Amino acid sequence: MNIHEGSSTSFKGINEIIQEVEDAYFVGRNEELKFFCDFLTAQNPKQRIIHFYGSAGIGKTFLLNKFARIAAAQHIPFLHLDARDFPNTAEGLFSHFQASLTTFIATHELDYSPPTKVESSLQILNQLGEKIIIVIDSYEQLSTLDRWYRETLLRYLRPNFYIILAGRKPLTGEWVESPAWRKITKQIQLNPFTYDDTLLFLTKNEITESSDIQAIWKYTSGNPLLLSLATMSNISSKVSLKYESDSELLGALTKRWLSEATNERIISLIEVAALFHQFDQQVISTILQEEISNKKFNELISLSFVHKAKKGWSIQELIRDTIRIELKHKNPERYETLTNKIIQYYYHRVINYPTKEDIASFFYHIGDDVIQSVFFQDTALDTSMYLEPIGEYNFEEVESFFKYIKENISESITNYYNRTTNLSFQFDASIEHNKQELKLIGPEYIKKMGYDGSNLLKRINGEVIGISIVVPIHKETLPLLENEPVSRAYFKGLTEAEKSYYNVPVEKPAGYFIRYQNYKDPSDSAARAHLLYSLFPLIFSKGRLIISTPLKLFQDLLYKFGFQTVPKAVHYDYGEHNPTPTFLLDVSGPRLAPYLNQFLKEYKQKNELDVIIEEFSLTKREQEIVKLLLEEKTILDIAKELYIAEITVKKALSRIYQKANVKNRIQLTKRIMQLLK
């Protein structure tokens, strides 16, 4: 515990030097600082108790130290206790309180006798100033004293005492259930730094290269603790969450975040939960093959970095990634076993009881970098956004949306980052593409095709931020799709049998044409992820999905989801120099299970190849050759597929044999089989 007040000495002590450095490196928190300054100057503030909360490493203590310096400059006593420094008992609190006040009196040579009771301590504080700030950091540590502290101590403090609490979780129970306590208590959540705050922080730490700044921003997401560790570790020059180079950093982070866990059993549950994008009690029990009690699960979801999601709970993205990566490298066998169980669990769920969340979770755990990055940001599950079906009642909003887009047309760039693999991806649509697109589609397209399948994306306050247009294919839309730009290349080329397949009643569409998605803010990756995530139910619609796009990232995604290009369905509706293919995915009838099985097979092959690569230290070209060897391709086939000479393949094979300590292909195959057992 520390009591901060202006110093009367003329030389700089250690404490003053530390305060000067902390002041020099302090960035951001402007709203919180303004609130605190107003809090200090108010004669009779409405709120007498302020609670700052946020996950470990968010900068609560650093902010409290800044408050202390502001109070000291105004000669306002600032009593700063940290609940981690004393036993969680009333006696422990009082003892620590009195010891620190005694130290303060001696340090400032005040004419008071050392206090022996709480009453005398409070009397001394009353004489020190008209206002006194009492702070308790790590308040969650006082959980068993919460009621006593509130009802026995706080309730009877004099009006000149102002209280600040800080902890990892928001106050609950009587703090919010009682109208009286709720009225005098203000809760403020601390969030990660903004990009501008991060830029200032890095500049103060002499990191000014644009590439380093961008890499650290993607890596840290503005988390103050991670930023601080980044500036003192080698990741400022080589930003990566690769365990081999940053094991100490990962260990420090996970230890800090997991300090809330009360025992090894809860830590084990956290490791399993971190493998999920969303989880609930039932799914964790199933994966661990044991019943997780309500008590244990409630302990898990009460952690500060676990938050409610649309379907269950989720661990904060940065913490989830860090825990997962450390588990993968510390205990790869447990990591693979759990991941395989999760994939199998969602596979059977999708086959038997398909839901949007289950099909999404299946693809999430298959582990493709691009799919995870684009579809599975935390913000994709943001409950502050929702889809509203388009109809006559809100069509004016559709018209207003397109009017806004046309008046603010620009290039669309959205950046995605996969922290687990340290890979970046970019969606880029040129201004020319966007202009051409708006010539091809607008409100009239929706009216022509019908409202079914079209939605507005809104924020919880009703603001329209995006739109999605998906056309159900049936007897009424089929002739329209045959004549509309973008879709006509495919639908005009249908055989009579294929037309018959699509010529079905309105209430039973044979498939969907995914036509258009757009956003007010082209760089809003959260809105883009939300709308893309909403397309997952179409995969188990038991029909055909058709889409046509010239955009590279979307084409890559379609291939990754198993779409195939349709022969003779290329068009030039986006410009004469922009040939655009049409893609089709057929999950009609009994095709869903084989479709999902191909991803299970690819996942198994990918894991096997990873083991081989690590064991033999293969180059990229050697990896490609080994992959084809496992598919039983001949040297001639490999040469043709990789567009290289046979002699090049033979030389590469010689190097692979040498690395594997074998003499020929048969021995290599045998060695690999032994390795994969």
Question: Would you give an account of this structure?
Answer:
This protein is α/β, with parallel strands linked by helices. It has four domains: 2-189, Rossmann fold (3-Layer(aba) Sandwich), CATH 3.40.50; 240-366, no CATH class; 385-575, Aminopeptidase; 617-676, Winged helix-like DNA-binding domain superfamily/Winged helix DNA-binding domain (Arc Repressor Mutant, subunit A, Orthogonal Bundle). The chain has a seven-stranded mixed beta sheet, with helices on both faces. α12 packs across α16 and α29 (620-630) crosses α31 (646-660). Residues 234-245 have low confidence and may be disordered.
The percentage of residues in β strands lies in 5-15%
- How much helicity do the residues have? 40-55%
CATH architecture of the largest domain: 3-Layer(aba) Sandwich
Kindly identify the CATH topology of the largest domain. Answer: Aminopeptidase
Distance between the termini: 57 Å
Summarize this entry quickly.
51% of the residues lie in helices and 14% in strands. It is an alpha/beta fold and 677 residues long. The strands form 4 sheets. The protein has a 7-stranded mixed beta sheet, sandwiched between helices. Strands 1-3-4-5-2-6 form a 6-stranded mixed beta sheet, sandwiched between helices. A two-stranded antiparallel ribbon has the order 7-8.
Key traits:
677 residues, alpha/beta, Rossmann fold, Aminopeptidase, 4 domains, 6-stranded mixed beta sheet
What does the secondary structure layout of this molecule look like, with pairings?
Blueprint: E1 2-4, H1 14-25, H2 30-41, E2 49-53, H3 60-73, E3 78-82, H4 90-107, H5 118-128, E4 132-137, H6 146-153, E5 161-167, H7 174-177, H8 179-184, E6 185-189, H9 195-204, H10 210-220, H11 224-232, H12 243-257, H13 264-273, H14 281-288, H15 294-301, E7 306-309, E8 312-315, H16 317-330, H17 332-352, H18 356-366, H19 369-375, E9 385-389, H20 395-407, E10 412-418, E11 423-429, H21 431-440, H22 443-449, E12 454-459, E13 464-473, H23 478-481, H24 488-491, H25 496-502, E14 511-519, H26 525-533, E15 544-548, H27 552-560, E16 564-565, E17 582-586, H28 592-616, H29 620-630, H30 635-642, H31 646-660, H32 665-676
